[in-house]
Amino acid sequence: MIKTLGIVSLSSGIIGEDFVKHEVDLGLQRLRDLGLKVKFLPHAQKGLDFIKEHPQARAQDLIDAFADDSIDMILCAIGGDDTYRLLPYLFENNQLKQVINQKVFLGFSDTTMNHLMLHKLGIKTFYGQSFLADICELDNDMLPYSLHYFKELIVNGKISEIRPSDIWYEERTDFSENALGTARISHPNSGFELLQGPSQFEGEILGGCLESLYDIFDNSRYQDSKELCEKYQLFPALSDWEGKILLLETSEEKPAPALFRKMLQTLKETGIFEVLNGILVGKPMDETYADDYKKELLNIVGGDLPVLFNLNIGHATPRAIVPFGVHAHVDADKEIITFENE
């Protein structure tokens, strides 16, 4: 049972800004109503500019969160786009390794980089939700499907299985105080969709946001992301990917099909598609380019590697929570992913 939760801002410092105070207050109350104590790590609420300019402070918050024995779970405030800059402050002198211990870590989007950092140190993490994006949902309650998985995680410290949501929601355009108490527009959800390969496969899951993974190999967003990620060997070795299931999902930037193809091709060139046991792909936000993405996946992945599409994982709402580092059994026919928890 999770009792104390530590909130960190590892990418964006938005939760320190006045214009989201109504969301933060709402989320805090929800966490307290769930019986949780909440600690904001010292720099988490310093705002956008401070967080952008001080990667060392962000890194220190992560170190402190692991070092603090009273914190049972580390929750990322939100994603962002430059958490790769924490690498030197976590790994140059084994700073993070000295305090690392197994505790629940939850985040998604650019937090993909942090998941890979923790994977390097043998930590099992959870992908799929964040404080601002999920706990601070502006409706009268958290989205029921998202809440189901969050409650399971804080009560049991694990996720037992994932099934599709019956509905999906359009992304909000208004996050102001005027939107408090307003419902999202919803649509029926079609469930898991097997694009190719056997309907059953298994392995440990690892991966995350496709754009963040692409930043490991490409400097078009940041001029030094490729060099830093190479220096600290952020992308796991091919031997580490052997037998794993790759999780991929796209961000709110809704990459055009040509960019989606380019990013997939870059991953293919690492050789991982030759050693994986399968690929899971999250529903694109607002289902934008869904059919195009399916075509690109089939064209680029090739072979008979199982590709399961339209999971409620990543940037589209509602969101499940995916355990990394736990053996998973995928059954596309029964539309269920089960996890072998100890």
How would you sum up this structure, described in words?
With 342 residues, the protein is of the alpha/beta class. The chain has two domains: 158 residues, Rossmann fold, CATH 3.40.50; 173 residues, Glucose Oxidase, domain 1 (3-Layer(bba) Sandwich). It has twelve helices and 16 strands. The strands form three sheets. An eight-stranded mixed beta sheet has the order 6-16-15-10-11-12-13-9. Strands 2-1-3-4-5-14 form a six-stranded mixed beta sheet, sandwiched between helices. α11 runs parallel beside α12.
Poorly predicted ranges (pLDDT <50, ≥5 residues)?
A: none
Overall mean pLDDT score? 97
Number of DSSP helices?
12
CATH class of the largest domain: Alpha Beta
Secondary-structure-derived class: alpha/beta
The radius of gyration computed from the alpha-carbon positions, rounded to a whole number of angstroms, is 19 Å
CATH fold field value of the largest domain? Glucose Oxidase, domain 1
The order of strands across the largest sheet is 6-16-15-10-11-12-13-9
Give the CATH superfamily of the largest domain.
LD-carboxypeptidase A C-terminal domain-like
CATH architecture of the largest domain: 3-Layer(bba) Sandwich
Number of domains: 2
